[in-house]
Amino acid sequence: MQHSISRMIGYAIRATDGDLGKVEEFYFDDETWTIRYMIVETGNWLSGRKVLIAPVAFGKPESESRMISVNLTCAQVGSSPNIDTERPIYLQHEAELHDHYQWPWRGGYGGTFGTIPLPLPVNEVSVEQEASASGRRDDPHLRSTREVASYHLHATDGEIGHVEDFIVDDENWAIRFLVVDTSNWLPGKKVLLSTQLIKRVEWADSSVHFDVTRESVKNRPEFDPSMPLTGVITVPIPILTHPKHNEAMENRNSKVHKTDK
């Protein structure tokens, strides 16, 4: 089933033996557009500490009760490495977190308590090599949904709006669509654009570029975010004409299906 990221903010997180807190935001991998962590505000029982939980531990989001169960105990979470989520997440911190919970290092498993394999973007060694080469200690591919929610969106022939929300699939926790607010161009209209149509992301200037035209966006069906998300959202994907799109997608898919060594 598919879910709105913004609607899941504030969901209660239920451990096997008690309440952990509430969802504050999500981190995703910018190569595969797949959720890597949920940030949970623990409230009073851990003095307001925020903790990271990976999809390997997620159950199915329950929209009626506004809750997500996780297959962890309160003691496990309480003794997990204390990672400052207000600062960049270091690779060393991620490794310590995965060691603590005995989670797979990259990707792992989604679905109900880790039953569905998640995409594996690149192996641990290549991530560390990339960070080392750039002089960075933080994970270079970890992005905040809260931060990207303000990014400007561009078609091949001009700006089309900004990111309002994300639609995620709870079978593998992949971000399937961006909700596009076109209010600066088409007043009041919101549409969905598949992440498969992304040509590139300019992180430095906070913009996402799609391989679609403004006309095709204008003709897309309107998305009503107030309506419940039932079943699987499908929207027509226009025929793409950009010459490098197929090559880019092949390269992206080859990365997605690599396994760790």
Summed up:
The chain has 261 residues and is α+β, with helices and mostly antiparallel strands. The protein is built from 7 helices and 15 strands.
Descriptive labels:
disordered C terminus, alpha+beta, Photosynthetic Reaction Center, Chain H, domain 2, 2 domains, SH3 type barrels, globular
According to CATH, the homologous superfamily of the largest domain is Photosynthetic Reaction Center, subunit H, domain 2
The CATH topology name of the largest domain reads Photosynthetic Reaction Center, Chain H, domain 2
What's the architecture of the largest domain, going by CATH?
A: Alpha-Beta Complex
The end-to-end distance, rounded to whole angstroms, is 31 Å
The total strand number stands at 15
- Note the total helix count: 7
Give the proportion of residues in helices: 10-25%
The chain-level structural class is alpha+beta
Largest sheet: 7 strands, mixed
What series of H and E elements makes up the topology? EHEEEEEHHEEHEHEEEEEEHH
Name of the level-1 CATH class of the largest domain: Alpha Beta
How many distinct folded domains? 2
Poorly predicted regions are 119-127, 237-261
Question: What does this 3D model show about the protein?
Answer:
The protein folds into two domains: 2-143, Photosynthetic Reaction Center, subunit H, domain 2 (Photosynthetic Reaction Center, Chain H, domain 2), CATH 3.90.50; 146-256, PRC-barrel domain (SH3 type barrels, Roll), CATH 2.30.30.240. It has seven helices and 15 strands. By secondary structure, it is of the alpha+beta class. It has helices at 5-8, 74-78, 91-101, 124-134, 145-148, 214-218, 245-256, and strands spanning 2-4, 12-15, 18-29, 34-41, 50-53, 67-69, 109-110, 116-117, 142-144, 152-155, 158-169, 174-181, 190-194, 198-202, 207-210. The longest helix is centred in the C-terminal third of the chain and has 12 residues, at 245-256. Strands 1, 10, 11, 12, 13, 14 and 15 form a seven-stranded mixed beta sheet that branches.
